[in-house]
Amino acid sequence: MKSSASGLSFSSTLLSAEKKEVAAPVRWSLAAGPAGRGLAKACAFSYRKFVEFGLGELGRRAHLIPSPLQGEFSSRKALDGKTEMEFLAYKAPGIRLIRSLRIGGGGDGMQVLDFAIFPEPEYDLPIFCANFFSASNTNIVVLDLNPLHNVIENDDYKEKYYHGLLPLGMKYAEALPWGGKLTSESLSFFSPIVIWTRFPSSKDMHEVLYSAFVDYLKAWVSLMDLAAREVDLSVVVAHHKAQHRYLTWRAEKDPGHQVLRRLIGEADTKTVIRRFLFDGVDSLGSKTFLDYFPEYQCKDGSINEKRSMVGKSFASRPWSPSGKFIGKGTAD
Ligand code: BLA
After folding, report:
1. Domain of life here (predicted)?
2. How many other CB atoms are there within 10 angstroms of residue 326's CB atom?
């Protein structure tokens, strides 16, 4: 972030250092194999070190201030009395909210990390999004710098933030390949460097994922370093709206709802989703889900519970290595 604009002292040397680091694709040895010794070791796996790295790296670059949300949510416990839920939340200059929900230790092998960084609406920076769900032998991963504005339609925004990061996306394209068809609507919230993947648990794969998390977080920090605070009120309002639309989508359609309901019940799930995970959905704007996504409206005026109206699409990566959208978008 430009210190003149924000008063922050983020280093601006990181971006060039990052570019050098990301040149070579990751070809991890999968010798341990999904069904081999890696599986046994996967039991000890936890997302704790991801959170420690994320907060450590951010804390090294900016002064983190605990958010009141942390105190409010930290005592929440899973209904089974076993599964641990760790709620962490901070603010920093230029950053509206850094929040992390980590779930694990329930004895069923389930581990979840939902780690996100939301910039202040004065910045058009992407939203850092690490969304990992691991059951005993499967992992569902979305790791991205989610664009604030749709990059399938908006070339300028794509160019501004992702052109320099395409080598980073390519670095993991082989080791963490495209995870197959997904909710079509989600694609408009993803960037050309999104990592959307599924893999069986193994120590090696979790190490690749950690490495990707580290790289993507550093890349986000390097963008933050260079970001300029917007002063034009109409542009700030547009950023507000874009962040609110994103939060509204996720608060309504996040695939984590069902798992959370099982862990903490219906009422607490709603509170965790609206007040913690997607804080801002009830304060950054007044539009409703159906205002943004009218195609989900049922005849009786309620919101269609389906996650997707279009269906699932994009069996393979819909972005070319040069960042061109090449998705066919044919749904099931
Ligand atoms: C699955 N999570 C998924 C999938 C995506 C995401 C794309 C694949 C299924 C699908 O097509 O929807 C993630 N989707 C996203 C993200 C965005 C989006 C990040 O639109 C952003 C715009 N997930 C969580 C939490 C839990 C969780 C907290 O974030 C559990 C507590 C679980 N995600 C989870 C599960 C699945 C999943 C269980 C697989 C089951 C399913 O597809 O319903």
Report:
1. Eukaryota
2. 10
